[in-house]
């Protein structure tokens, strides 16, 4: 499925990360119309290859106008907008009418905020579609690489998963690196690439696994962690044996290139339930 | 209390970290005899200011001989020896007789290992004393710096403590850095200084707290985390507002110098139950 039919352009409100790009590419490949409103400071450079406008996250009226002008009746919100620092003086009139509902939601965390924004957009007459409806993810367990995980790797994977599960309630922990039962890294705000780079700078030995999972409470209809060829390169520099991602919880960007890079380096990739 | 009386030199089997140094300094200041057996690759350079021998961790017979030659009947094991990589070919005869008991303990983790080593030393006729008996730690809640934590800091401290508590069962997490509810760093194998350095390299804003606590299951009679003037310097470079340490769980090295460095930088230090 790639969303509503060709008569209606799909509006894509695009934040950070890989998901909005995959949504746009799915529409383009299916030959279906779409219009991206990229959020300034969040959306990546990939957006310039697609029909798009860039708007500030505070310019709610302009965002709605852009969608209306393009004739969008259906909208997808895709990509993270992790707690933006918003200057209240920059909020436009429309945003100000939203504010009484947004402020309490802001204090409750990401999920409450997203539910509120969804309700406000629907009140504008827009029909919201989850990005996961346009880029369906139905991956079974798979090790697409030539290298396969060992029993030692599996034991480190179990430990990394236990750590991520323990952190789930604390809004942290999309990734962890474990080697021989020792925890080399736990992903924080600064992301996987930063964690891997730091490990590579300091360790002198070799081995271990990176495990990436959807953070508990993270809405896979809007934002998902991703790996790609760059992640493989960083994992190699960090001396790892392999990368483990949660099936249907973590995206692979450029899957063929990612698997090829892993094969060239002798790394395994394990898509794991 | 500074251990057994002047007639009997205290043997100090010294690993990594601050605790063995504090034990030696307490004995020296009390004018009581002592003899350090520093474990090669673990003990710090401070040992050269004290009566000492350096021995490999595998040279069990030599370690026991050094203690016997010095006339030690009482022994303290102080300082971490985090899972040393031991070449079995280097184990001496005595170590080999210990091996059948050590190997199963090694697989069970640090605590089981320490209990086993303690039992083996006691079987040699040595009386074991916890380092916490020689360097007593009885700190009440205190903010010894001019800067004091704010309500925002306290809320970040609570979050960092919750993260460390969640990780306690997984043998990781002596420290965490939180700012405005966002987790900037979680300490792993590579330690506090590394974590702070990495945060300083990547962040562009300012604020937040470092919280350090004794890792659950960590034996304060043998090993304790520590902060010192260097920690303050690293915290300043990481842009933090303050450092929070667990009373009776984390050592302050050179307390006067540490507080002075914090005061100069406007950082708070909070000794917290």
TrEMBL record, chains A, B:
Specify the domain of life of the species encoding this protein. Bacteria
A Pfam match: LpxI_N
Give the LpxI N-terminal domain ranges: 10-136
Q: Which InterPro entries match?
A: LpxI (IPR053174), LpxI_C (IPR010415), LpxI_C_sf (IPR043167), LpxI_N (IPR041255)
Q: Which residues form the LpxI C-terminal domain?
A: 143-270
Q: What is the protein named?
A: LpxI family protein
What species is given as this protein's source?
Pontivivens nitratireducens
């Amino acid at each position: 499925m790639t969303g509503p039919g060709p008569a209606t352009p799909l509006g894509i409100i695009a934040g950070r990360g890989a998901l909005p790009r995959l949504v746009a590419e799915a529409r383009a490949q299916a030959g279906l119309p779409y219009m991206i409103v990229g959020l300034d400071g969040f959306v990546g450079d990939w957006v310039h290859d697609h029909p798009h406008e860039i708007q500030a996250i505070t310019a709610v009226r302009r965002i709605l106008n852009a969608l209306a002008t393009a004739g969008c009746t259906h909208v997808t919100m895709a990509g993270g907008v992790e707690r933006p620092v918003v200057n209240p003086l920059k909020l436009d009139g429309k945003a100000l009418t939203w504010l009484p509902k947004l402020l309490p939601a802001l204090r409750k965390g990401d999920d409450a905020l997203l539910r509120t924004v969804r309700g406000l957009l629907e009140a504008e007459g827009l029909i919201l579609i989850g990005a996961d409806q346009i880029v369906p993810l139905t991956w079974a367990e798979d090790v697409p690489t030539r290298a396969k995980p060992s029993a030692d790797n599996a034991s480190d994977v179990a430990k990394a998963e236990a750590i991520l599960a323990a952190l789930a309630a604390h809004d942290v922990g999309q990734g962890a690196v474990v080697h021989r039962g020792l925890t080399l890294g736990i992903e924080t705000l600064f992301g996987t690439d930063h964690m891997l780079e730091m490990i590579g700078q300091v360790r002198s030995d070799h081995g271990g696994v990176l495990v990436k999972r959807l953070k508990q409470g993270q809405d896979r209809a809007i934002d998902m962690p991703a790996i790609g060829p760059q992640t493989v390169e960083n994992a190699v520099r960090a001396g790892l044996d392999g990368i483990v991602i949660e099936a249907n919880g973590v995206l692979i960007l450029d899957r063929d290139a990612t698997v090829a890079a892993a094969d060239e380096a002798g790394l395994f990739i394990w898509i794991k339930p």
